[in-house]
């Protein structure tokens, strides 16, 4: 769905003119379950200042930007009967199921539970955090590349306010032709400091699953491919790309995470290292990356903490809203090989998927309890071996991003 500048502006003005609503809409008590309705609408605009590749993904349309409805999430939730909770979510824009699961809180404690259905797997602080409260418009490159999001499975978790351990076994996504591969995930968190406005969080995760099944030529075989957009969700181009890793077996990703909150300031970072095992004469492929971000609530609010993730507060002053400014450094390395240029023809050993770094400067404005406007400027530097040019090419574009969001 394409949105013109006029359509996007009118939708935004209509949303801002609407009266404030509650964070969720209670519906009724049905069979002992308190049912409520939530929704999230996001409209994005990206303006590309391309370098080598046309980030808009088309060399003929003559446009340097893109405008789209990003998400249209509709979610039913239920509390009860007893210690049961359930959720049924669907994204009408992406035409896919979101969280769709049943949870039982052991002893009524939300930190001790058994969960069945589709849910986000226990890995990545950023992936597990609420989408509507993302610090930046595009998630970090390693999150989009290696974090295991929603899969159908079973999970067991235990802990308290300061620590948690969660394990799961999972298969494919509920919506067909999306994420697949049977596996398991583990995540442990510890908050040695956990006070209002004073928080230190540490986490470790590990996920291992089967590589995806795909067609290569006339053969059907396990194939994995890693690639990344330039921190711009609407870009049709990936600047780093391993290509098809054939005869792939298992994917194993280890993640380290940390977060420090002091009053209105938050530092957050993650590191991931992912290895794709391969059969035959192929060597295993290992990629790695990290991000580090800093966020400041200019209007003085601080963050909460629940289930090993931060929670974003409502504005202290609903009429003027909450203002945030942030800066993030983001890097990913998909090179796991070497390039020999001593002969007449360069020789590549292993995989040279490229390396990409990005700086993102952002601002967010949360107005009342239902609206958010976000603006980002992204500067990217990348390098990747090009087999046609027989050289390493550098592509260093920039992107201006804007998001209008309504949620309830």
UniProtKB/TrEMBL annotation:
InterPro entries for this protein: Porin_dom_sf, Porin_O/P
Name of the protein this chain belongs to: Porin
UniProtKB keywords: Signal
Cleavable signal peptide: 1-23
